[in-house]
């Protein structure tokens, strides 16, 4: 064997992994999912407890049919959809590589899609909540119809139809007849039509995110500006404005923490699924980034019950009533009613 033939053979061996990296067999896109699953279990338990308490408070409190309550109840409905999907994702992550293929396929076809339906319904309803707060404060006579419960119901129906239209085809489009052997990702199951629709749904989801983010951030910014202008008012007005400012700033911070990192990663990660990005190491890094930021996005399940508490007087009354004595429940009810009147008073002032 000559020196040149040895060199050529060495080069072919060194180059072989790099050339084969795009294939499923040589570039395994995976990682330890058990830590993620453990956090998901905690999120599920906390979110389920908060959602059940909120549902009980909405039902028992006989919440008035206000525009804000319509959006909050739809947001709560979206949270319950996510809680239907989380146990399947947890089981799939805990047993990655050893779960029955049928569970992995069910996760890809159903529970993963439910997660995205929840995500885009939630961010849209959060934007509507923020916009409604601004409309209440601005008190523009030309925009009063936007605060009617009937309008909120119509807009909520439009949101559900839109997110279902974008995501349900990912459930309905048939998967490949030839199933990959061993561990697989959801993209490995998709036909060419399924891959194209998945890419389209990601693009449309990004458009929804960018538009509703602009609405939410602009609305909250304008509300905070209005409240800042009332810092020289009376003592009670300053206290109410301060409490409202804290809740609005909290909603904004939670929104940015939960949803912005995920959407910064989602398009590049989708390019790895369609093999536009084909570098194996980069694909692995983007997979880890996607899973980490998806966990942050699902964390909103724990923040939403706090939102219901601050924005719905019926939820606030029921929850505080549980932890109070029988004698003080009347005082709490009176205080809540007074707070509601004060809130309306603040919102009505120019």
From TrEMBL:
Keywords from the UniProt entry: Cell membrane, G-protein coupled receptor, Membrane, Receptor, Transducer, Transmembrane, Transmembrane helix
Membrane topology label: Multi-pass membrane protein
Organism in which the protein naturally occurs: Coilia grayii (Gray's grenadier anchovy)
Signal peptide segment: none
GO cellular component, one term: plasma membrane
Protein name listed in UniProt: G-protein coupled receptors family 1 profile domain-containing protein
Coiled-coil features, chain-numbered ranges: none
Protein's UniProt keywords contain tRNA processing: no
